[in-house]
Amino acid sequence: MKNTTLGLLAGLLVSVAAPALANDSVTAGQDDPKQWTMQLSNYAGTSYSELDAINKDNVGDLQVAWTFSTGVLRGHEGSPLVIGDVMYVHTPFPNMVYALDLNEDGKILWRYHPEQNPDVIGVMCCDTVNRGLAYADGTIFLSQADTTLVALDATTGDVKWSTVNGDPTKGETATATPLVVKDKVLVGISGGEYGVRGHLTAYNIADGSQAWRAYSTGPDEEMLVDPETTTHLGTPIGADSSLNSWEGDQWQIGGGTTWGWTTYDPELNLIYYGTGNPSTWNPSQRPGDNKWSMTIMARDPDTGMAKWFYQKTPHDEWDYDGVNENILVDKEIDGEMRKLLVNFDRGGFAYTMDRETGELLVAEKYDPVVNWATHVEMDPESDQYGRPQVVAEYSTEQNGEDVNTTGICPAALGTKDQQPASYSPKTGLFYVPTNHVCMDYEPFRVSYAAGQPYVGATLSMFPAPDSHGGMGNFIAWDAVSGEIKWSLPEQFSVWSGALATAGDVVFYGTLEGYLKAVDSESGEELYRFKTPSGVIGNVFTYEHDGQQYVGVLSGIGGWAGIGLAAGLTNANDGLGAVGGYAALSDYTALGGQLTVFTVPN
């Protein structure tokens, strides 16, 4: 591996000089709004900042302060980290890392350039994205595309240790950000479109040794569940709950990958994450509920043992991966303060749950065009409790193999994909970047071969009919009442992560390349700026030398922008996205740039 040290870091967290448990250093970082030490700003995943120097009264005066080119022309997801006086910037494959000195106009202190087999690009489903770095105790953690987890010295960029989390020859890759909890770093796996069996794995941050691994499917002991105490909607899951929901040994290639976000409640000592689609996309080939794909999982981070599950889409028929972030907030419901988990699922339902018990409290559509299910059954006495009620017309299983089911809303990329929502404790609202896209879906029979696509469906995507004509909305959501408070139509899907601030401003980016700022109460647009390429990164903010800055990575790609990123032209390529987003090329081009803004003094 190549590493060039060009300088020394300055101004790191105190915990670097006096190492503490990783949770202490991460907590210190998330509690300091001047820094941006976690991808979603904090363990709760709220993507919220207490900084308010940039506010709704002056945000219209934003100007570009400085820029940085990453040198990579693929989809740029996630955001940089800011630790003290240093910014850490990551790239898509080949997953370079830059340490930039904020005291010297972004001078490169060191760069890390891993040597990876380029063959891994061919087994990355939806672009060569990476969702960002993690930090703890003077160490930067990077999960490379080839599944190598690397611990880098934050001061020098030197490799402290590395370990391999999967096998790309079997279709196993990595796109998600790690999460550090206590003395462990947690990392997921990608590859549901290759029949990969999903898992979340914990490694000891001291030396990279494996602490535990929890599979999404299979025997109880490999899933780290107790059939008598692990619950689903309050009921013990029972012995062999996963095995009994698959035909034969299909669970071994059953998907349920873990390429989304993980959040953590230190008081309950529980981590929360989601599992992806079952393999294959042809539902006729895998009868049963296919547990525990499409599931929110709550686990003990010390042991990996599961406390509760909630399967959002049993026997998925549409590729509605359940990996989106679980935002943790405390709010009053029916006069009682509750510890809540809020999840905006790909399938178009927003779930509000009790994060301690897994009780389902709210399940409502956050885009009115969602039509594949009428509702989620909320009666605990019903045998359908917690299950979406599928509409036969849009059921790819009921319509059968080699039948094109038309007009399904949302499309496979969901009402929201991985792009994180934000939450403002000032308004009590969630701000959600969404896709307003529908699809036609034709499943066909497919055979499994290790390292080869295991999809089994042909898709085409298009804007939701009889609507505003665009493919996205940016919405404000009330998670207690289950209602949209306001909605801003967008020409294309909103594929960037949102940022809410104490300045009463919410920021997000668009696929055409705009950074936008809106009033958190009304949704009124206050500012827009066209960056060099489409924005699929997450907006972040920090303070340096008494000045607040807002930044975002631009670089078109991801699933929505895969046509541009990979040079694809067939409308059905990119798992159906190329045709749906063909017009993007009229508005933006490839890029890889960080743009940082401020309001001049």
Provide the descriptors you would attach to this structure in a database record.
globular; disordered N terminus; 6-stranded mixed β-sheet; mainly beta; single chain; Methanol Dehydrogenase, Chain A; 35% strand; 601 residues
Detailed description of the structure:
GO terms for molecular function: calcium ion binding; oxidoreductase activity, acting on CH-OH group of donors; pyrroloquinoline quinone binding. It comes from Paracoccus alcaliphilus. With 601 residues, the chain is mostly beta strands. The chain has a single domain (28-598), classed as Methanol Dehydrogenase, Chain A (8 Propeller), CATH 2.140.10. Helix content is 5%, strand content 35%. The protein is built from six helices and 41 strands. Strands 17-16-21-20-19-18 form a six-stranded mixed β-sheet, with no helix packed on it. Strand 39 (540-544) and strand 40 form a beta hairpin.
